[in-house]
Structures are given as C-alpha cells and as structure tokens.
Amino acid sequence: MPDQIDRTLPIELKASLTSGSDTWHSTGAPGVVRPFLLADGPHGVRRQREGGDALGIGNSVPATCFPPAVALGSTWDPALVRRVGEALAEEAAALEVDVLLGPGMNLKRSPLGGRNFEYFSEDPHLTGRLAAAYVEGIQAGGVGACVKHFAVNNQETDRMRVSAEVDQRALHEVYLRAFEHVVRTARPAMVMSAYNRINGVPASEDPWLLTRVLREEWGFDGVVVSDWGAVDDRVAALRAGLDLEMPPTGTDDEVVAAVERGELAESALDAVVERLRRLEARLGGAKEPVSEQELAAIRDRNTDLAREAAARSAVLLANDGVLPLDRSSRTSVAVIGEFARTPRFQGGGSSRIVPTGVSSALDALTARLGTDVVRFAPGYAVDGSGDEALARAAVEAAGAARVAVVFLGLPEHAESEGFDRTTIDLPADQVGLLEQVAAVAPRVVVVLSNGGVVSVARWQHHANAILEGWLLGQAGGEATADLLLGDRAPSGKLAETIPLRLADHPSYPTFPGVDGVSVYGESVHVGYRHFDAADRPVAFPFGHGLTYTRFEYSDLRVVEQAENTWEVAFSVTNTGDRDGREVAQLYVGPAEGQQPTRPRAELRGFAALDLRPGETATVTLPLTAAELQTWDARGQRWTVLPGDYAVRVGASSRDVRLRATVHSDGDRVLAPLTAQSTIAEWQADPAGQQVLAALLGRVSLAGRASSVAPELVRMFLSIPLDKLRSFGLGVTAATVADLVAQAQARQEELIAAGTYRRP
Ligand code: BGC
C-alpha cells in the first residue's frame, strides 16, 4: 500500500474507481486510468454489446466455443491449453475485450458440483499446471486473465452465502495450492474473489485471503475483482484488499463516508488506483476493433484449434478392439441418440456463449462414411419426452447394423452454474434405450456428453467401447468422428475419478451441507486421494485413458541431486502398431505405515509423449521438497517430515508401472519447544530429546521406568510437558521453565552448528 496519500485526486473520484461503471466496464477517469472492458470466459468470449447480464441469459456476439475446462483438463497438455489461451486472447482483443474472466480453477470436490464443467480437475497439481498455461496464453496475446473463483468455491448450492468449513491443511495443500502456483508462475492480471465464505468469513471481504496470503505470501500484484454481486460490505471488502466491486452497486458515498469517519484508510483507495494504473501499463491502451474479414479469419483458425483440442480432450475409457471403427467394409453403422444430431457442447450459466458454428457427430460421420452406411435414429428426446416409438426405431436400426454408436449424456437442464446435481446417473430413459440396443446390436460403442461425471457402473457391460466426450465445444462433432474413425488417436486421461457409486465418494456424507454450512469432512482426501488411500474400487481411476496402441514403462532411476531434491527418470515405449500419445504420471506420498493421515499418493508431475510404434522416450521429472511437504497448521508453515517416500510412475493413479523409495531427513527445521509441547514432540526434537533425558533421570518415575507398562509410556507421550506438574512426579513450574530454557539454548547450538534450521 502506498504510504503517501495522493492528495491530488479527490476521495470521491478514487472511491468511484473501486467499482464498475456498468456490468462489464471498470470506471475510468481521464488522466488517471482508462476503463477496462471485462468479459466472460472462460471457454469463449462472451462479449455483450449492450447492457448485459452475468447469468448467460442475454445473447452475445458470436465467438469460437472451445472445449470447456472439464474437457481441456483431460488433455493433460499445458502446451495445447496455452495455445487455446492465445487463440481466446486474439478473439477477445478483436472484440475490444481487455480482461477475459477465466480460467475457472476451483477443485471438483464433489462430482455433483453444478459448475464442474468449468473446472479442470479434482487435483491441484494438474489444475495449477493447466490454469497457468491458460493464463500465460491469454496474457501473451495482450489480454488480461482473471483466475476464479478465489477461493474454496466448490459448490453451487447456496453459493452466495454458504460457508466452506475447511481445515488449514486442506486449504493449503488442496484448495489454495493451484491458485498459488498460477499466481506465482503466471502472474495473472486479475483474481476474482468468490461468493462463498471460508470458515465464516466472506471470501470477498477476507483480509487473510486477499492480502496476507494472496499479496504478501504469493506476491500477487494485480487487481482483485469481486465475483458479480459478491460484495456485501464494500468498505470491509476494500479494507480486506479487494480492488474492484462488480457490477456497481452505487454505494460510492458509503466508501467516501468511511474514509471521512476514519474507518477506511485513504491509502487503501490509493492502493487500488495504483493497481489499476499498473494494469493499464500492462495492457496498454484500449483495444482497436478489427474488420469483419479479419474477425472471420481468426474464427476460422480458432475453429480448427477447437477441433484439435476437442480430439485431445475425449477419454477412451474402455475398448475391446471395436474402435477405431472399421471403415473398409461398407456395412452399416447405426448412429443412435439425439445427442449425435443435437450436440451438447458447453455448459449453462455465465460461461455460455453463442458459437460461430456447431458440428454434429452425425453430420461428420455421415459425411465421411456416406449416407448409405450411416443410419440414424434419435432413440430418445433430450428433454425426456421421448416415447416407445422412438426407442423402437433405434432398436430396429441397431439390429440391422454391424455396430451401434450410441450417444448418451446429460441434458442441459441436468447441470448448470447456479445449482448442483443430486445424482450422477444418466437419465433412466437413455440407459433403458442402451439396454434394448445392446440386446440386438452385434457391437456397441457409447459416446458420452456430460459436464459432470456420470456413473457407468450400471450399464458399462453393455458397451464394447466407451468414449467419454465431456462437453467438447463447437467442433466436438468433427473431433468425435476423427476419434471413432481413427483419423486421430484418443489421448485424454481422466482428470477426475469416475466412482462406482456416488455414495463411495469422500464428499458424499457432507456435500452440499446444511443451513449454510458445508463441512469439508474429508479434509485433504479429495477425489483419488481418498479412493486410493481407502483402496476402494472405482469405475475408472484418476489419470486413466486408453488409446489405440500400448505403452511399456521401464528403467526407473531416482537420483538424488541435492538435499530433498531428486531427478526421476524413466522410459516409455510404444509397443503397439499405431502412433500414440501417452501421459506418464508421477505420484509421491509417504511410504506405507508412515504419516498415516496424509494421502498415499499425490500427483506431482506428468509428461505427454508422442511415440511412433517401437519408439522409446526417456522422461525426467524433478522431485523437490515442494512435492514432499505438508502444511503444519500448528506452526503455520510448510514442512518436510523425515521419513521414506514412495515414488510411483504409471499410466493412472491405479495403474502403477514403476516404483522406488527415497528417504528424506526432512527440512531439519527446529520449531520452538514450549511448556505446551507434548512429551512426544519433545522426544521428536533432537534438542528436546537430550534435555528431556536429563529430566527423566530426575523424576520419581524414572527409576521404575523399565517396569512401566507400554500403554502407560504411550499415554505419557501425549501429555504436554507443563501438565506433568499435575501427576505427582516432582515436576514443578520451575523445572518446566528450566527445561524450556535449556531446550532453547540447545536448539540455538544445533542451529549455529549448521545441522538444523530455524522455521
Ligand atoms: C460467475 C462468474 C462470472 C460472473 C460474470 C458470476 O455469476 O460466478 O464466473 O464471471 O458472473 O458473468
């Protein structure tokens, strides 16, 4: 914050700059700062010409609809996501947009989350890497990115009031981790503060979140904008570190009055002005519109990229060899399901855009296979109003074909921003249709369209192959045909677990909470962290995805480079007979039996490899203290605990191909020992251990130590030192004070000798 108050600008003017001038513009002041045009995002530019709304109700200028984050998340491909960001920026700039309101990067805590289609993953490492690439891409094009929704915005139920009750460790290790990575590495122009509360404090009015963590710890130097309508108390928000309230609520007078009453430091307003000016310096002058021809050329290029990204996003969940479809024998393919003709390609709410043109899988397959080969039957109506006749026609088509490609998925009304789902099942009429089709079709391929995960357990045995197509953007139809026909090989990997049953999910008992409180009872055990730790079967694990070839993993070498720094190297060979891309994954966690409350394995690195048949590539991934550390809530800091760590490399979180163990001596940080530290904590500390040994020689228990039952010794361990005074052991307040002083002195010696460090 500036120390000096800028007296040259009236308070009223400064106050006006801390809010928008309309739904999409920040307020500008000649000679001070220009206004900025903000637009949704994230998977396309939602530029509204006049008025506007934040709910995706009103129309916007047509724009390329890229695959939403649920799909891009499955690419595990930061380079591709960066290119999507660059393309979005080009289109945004052409439409005079200064800041694109994306990427959305909240974690998928529950498969029911209504906005899961707008988020990348259930894992913070993957989310962080992909969101950083998105931001870098957008900003390389001279447009600002705005990461959202900061933070712990993981549900839609009661989204504007709910308090996410989450422990400190889960906050740091899971929910803030991806934001931290993006802020530190990609320097987004803006961060959007969320609607919800975190442990009772509104995220948009939380000084700990917006100032201490975001700015002071992570070094964020951009603008914090509120989610649309998130601010209740503008003065509290400004005090907390929010810069820009959107859209305006006409409450500038309250801000001015608060400054005059001394309730809000004027320097807080100066800080906002300074940040807005810095944003102007970053983004330059207002964007120039481009000609219609230029815009058309940009959109054409972007449609090609949208198709490439869509093809990379789909995940081949299962395949017994039916895919790619054999197009040599020109026997018929039954294309079944309304979604083949009327694709679902984006989600509902503020991110909904008007696409420049939408391809359907039916058109794409028909164009490539011929009208004599493809026979279409809608089978069901998307709104559930279908009847027996529709299903009968589909069954008839399937019975006459060599293979039935059945398009199933979630209708628009089943998932959207603004509400959560209550089930992960596909609509019953669609499952019923699949059962009937499978009874007559020689072979069945299921293609899914859904923004949130759907359960496959009830029907997967009917399918010879399942292609999870998520929501693939406007070019998804062409991309789906590319994959089904083998013009491209699938390469997507699941960025979230597909559970067998909703009830298996760690969030199940507490999501979405009651009475405005959502308790994050599973703590750090989000998604696969829980399933893998509990060894619970899943339908398809995190990281899973097949292609049309096979890969072998070999030669794992983990070489120590420095203290708590290793290089993990291994080889991957394409052992099949087609080109293919494998995403090799590195998982790390405490070895069996150690640090029992931590996840067994967490994604800590990945690499995408394009390999020709017979080709081998060697991957090297760094493994550093950052990958081993855990959040110490008592000490309020990251720590690396000493012990063994299991290093796993594989094709999914469950398909582990190579294993090794590394040992860490920890970060060798000596946290202060106090009278409140337990005997176990004293024993675990090298200085405490020595000092305590002397005490144990003096207390009356010590002489009988060998005869003390083991359970008593264990009970002793959990007692804070000071409490020993209550147990008739001859320990007094003076003894305790003396021990604490001795321990401090011994710790200082160890630190001075260079063996240990200060926190
Ligand atoms: C959404 C944001 C969006 C904003 C503006 C809000 O309702 O939560 O993601 O950027 O509206 O449309």
Automatic annotation (TrEMBL):
The organism's place on the tree of life at top rank: Bacteria
Listed Pfam families: Fn3-like, Glyco_hydro_3, Glyco_hydro_3_C
Listed GO biological process terms: carbohydrate metabolic process
Keywords: Carbohydrate metabolism, Glycosidase, Hydrolase
Domain Fibronectin type III-like: 582-653
GO molecular function, one term: hydrolase activity, hydrolyzing O-glycosyl compounds
Listed InterPro entries: Cellulose_deg_GH3 (IPR050288), Fn3-like (IPR026891), GH (IPR017853), Glyco_hydro_3_AS (IPR019800), Glyco_hydro_3_C (IPR002772), Glyco_hydro_3_C_sf (IPR036881), Glyco_hydro_3_N (IPR001764), Glyco_hydro_3_N_sf (IPR036962)
SUPFAM superfamilies found in the cross-reference section: (Trans)glycosidases (SSF51445), Beta-D-glucan exohydrolase, C-terminal domain (SSF52279)
Family named by the database record: Belongs to the glycosyl hydrolase 3 family.
PANTHER family associated with the record: BETA-GLUCOSIDASE
Protein name according to UniProt: Beta-glucosidase
Gene source species: Saccharothrix carnea
